[in-house]
Target: DNA-binding transcriptional MocR family regulator
Amino acid sequence: MHERNSVAELALTLRSELNRYSPGEKLPSSRALVERFRVSPVTVSRALATLAAEGLVVTRPGAGAFRAEPHPASAPPGDTSWQQVALSAEAGEEAVPRSVDAAGVIASLAGPPPGVIELSGGYLHPSLQPERALAAALARAGRRPGAWERPPLEGVAELRSWFAREIGGPTGSVTPSGVLVTAGGQSALTTALRALAPPGAPVLVESPTYPGVIAAARASGLRPVPVPVDAQGVRTDLLAEAFRAGRARVFVCQPLFHNPTGSVLAEDRRREVLRIAREAGAFVVEDDFARRLAHEDAPPLPPTLASEDADGVVVHVCSLTKFTSPSLRVGALAARGPVLDRLRAIQVVDSFFVPRPLQETAVELVGSPAWPRHRRALAAELRVRREALLAALGRELPGSEVAYVPPGGFHVWVRLPDGTDESALAAATLRAGVLVTPGRPFYPAEPAAPHLRLCFAAAAGVAELREGVRRLGAVMREV
Amino acid sequence: MHERNSVAELALTLRSELNRYSPGEKLPSSRALVERFRVSPVTVSRALATLAAEGLVVTRPGAGAFRAEPHPASAPPGDTSWQQVALSAEAGEEAVPRSVDAAGVIASLAGPPPGVIELSGGYLHPSLQPERALAAALARAGRRPGAWERPPLEGVAELRSWFAREIGGPTGSVTPSGVLVTAGGQSALTTALRALAPPGAPVLVESPTYPGVIAAARASGLRPVPVPVDAQGVRTDLLAEAFRAGRARVFVCQPLFHNPTGSVLAEDRRREVLRIAREAGAFVVEDDFARRLAHEDAPPLPPTLASEDADGVVVHVCSLTKFTSPSLRVGALAARGPVLDRLRAIQVVDSFFVPRPLQETAVELVGSPAWPRHRRALAAELRVRREALLAALGRELPGSEVAYVPPGGFHVWVRLPDGTDESALAAATLRAGVLVTPGRPFYPAEPAAPHLRLCFAAAAGVAELREGVRRLGAVMREV
Model:
């Protein structure tokens, strides 16, 4: 059982028992709880903190935990309704409408309730993460001299060199001086969008696309404009048209194992994307989030767009989190030309720099023998899981369709029968104990058809995948 | 000698010896360098990576390091000049002018060149950081079960509870559910500004104030509007006037040990700030960056503004970095009311969450016996250093004036004789081997008078502080 489940379960039990205590009464000691529930002190501490965060329990260091008073006299409820006016206030007649819709992102980040099978999500199940290698790398990083000192603002030099080699490939066309270490891929995307486009500007995105890029664009006051993708990646004829039609100076693209479809940008379209953007005087943000997630049976990978771009068209984004752990929030931006200074300025002003111990952990990890070993093991496991999911879908969801078998990444993009209500389906599926991701949030405008995105990396194993699809199929037959 | 110095020195030596090798020639092995320079393998690796980042050296894993070819045939220099047009493109007639000036922030973050005395900066010298406690906390955090799992988006519950107790104080008026864990104070400030004000809006800031808040506001398209401070903190008569004059809905304030002056907001003005903001329907961002930096002789600290605010006026920002290490990038936002959702949405969309190992490190550290011990030791040391700096200033800079002896924080704010050219002085001082911070970047508009901000926490010790001020005095007598 994973830590997060045991914490959630203990919190659930304690919550249900709280009525036995009067407000202000002391709960059993941590030690007593450890003995009674046979869990670790850390689990008890976390479960109590969860209840404290909910306002049900008050913890006092040294004294213990107490049932909270229903209305603590010390904190009279104030009147916060004025905030609704203040938060809607605009800068002037021409202000950009404000909307920060984090729902899609939160849905993909939040873990499932205990007992629910996760066919959603965008991270590896803990059993697929290189947990021991991470722990060893962190321990070694902590012993490195100067591990807590200020890192260079652009990132630790060894890590920049490593990213440059990975992004540039054998051509060596990406230099360490063109790399900025970032706090993961989402931060890198946000920094790129804020650097490249002023508030109010349009930004071209693939359709469907990763909801995090739509949310990041909107949160920065940008207007995402859809450009359709098919099994060969973005439709370059429509890309050219979209640049002509608007004043966009940025196109965000996932050329490799596109999220959600898994498609790979075809060779002739790669050249077209760069040519079209160059002619439009626009940047291509290459979100290369999945390069290390190729399945065992994937054909040889195309190089990054960044490695084939001499004119600074491409702003490259990548990250280690998908391949390792969501908490190894280390990624990179790579670019060339004046834009590099703009990216660096935004990153420094927003958040200073990436914590050095995490950067040193990444240096240790990518240099360890565990790194290539993990890559091989993961490639094999992802292939097995993808095949198991596809086979289960064929058995249990005969009315659905997977247009494209992804050679990399975590997801398959399942076309549902016309007229299916995705939201109702997702809600009914959750009642049956399975978390799935509706397709709607992947479209910046009207969706092409009803879809689900199913993840084969977040579940505990193949048996759980099969059981999840079985329950999904039963729900679909009902609705 | 600190690691960063030995890396910089080895890089300097290797750089000067590069001419001995022809382009493409192999440099001595890491092992040979370790033996010759009597440094650790990590230092050699970092020094080589520094040269690689400068494009002087190419490293190939397993093969070694080579002098770089002057113009690698594989990376023809492209034409990036089009970017200047693209980066100036605006969204429309009414677009917000774009300026991302990170110079002030970068100056305060970059370490000094080797051999230069640091009277600038905003972090503790490594010898004042709780290095062993940090290493122990990191090691314990790495062994916690689930250390690499996804944390709750709002932060690890134990840490939220701790922050709530620290921010709310004995009143208990700040609840864990009102706390978001952030990646340090600067990220928290940026999140607050982006959440509270739309692009183009004015935001009231103290004058002088911390350059990082001016830069963060401008990078988000906001217009910082100055409100003067004196020895009792912000001038509340002028604050009311500034709210009346404009349409600002946000005031950013450092009530405790204000940066750069060190002043503490007076009791009557605390109440006034909350009343004025409440009447204006505006938020107060309380940047409580220095609460743990009280000097040994400081009077009892006032509580946070957040703890005395029932109506959700205050958005509280705090951080652990100043008190520990710049790389423990863990801080908090605290708020109540609808604004909390807005803050959470911005943070999640921008950067997802704070890496769990760092949060667990913070939990371990604040719960360890080293925490109160460090607080006492630091309070004593900061007092000694402040007094040493003030005494040296009295001796060496008779023409300067320190209006306020700060009871906390890292800085004194030194008034220079009228007509002093701060930039010329800082440049001449650097030539004499001392890094100081000119006063100009602390003013959002015209400066009141020439100043320097001197830091007594970043130098190696009292002797170095005295030597720094001696050199500064000699330079001032010359110019």
About this structure: The mean pLDDT of chain B is 91. Chain B touches chain A through 136 residues (CB under 8 Å). Residues 429 and 472 of chain B are 6 Å apart (CA to CA). Chain B is about 40% helix and 15% strand.
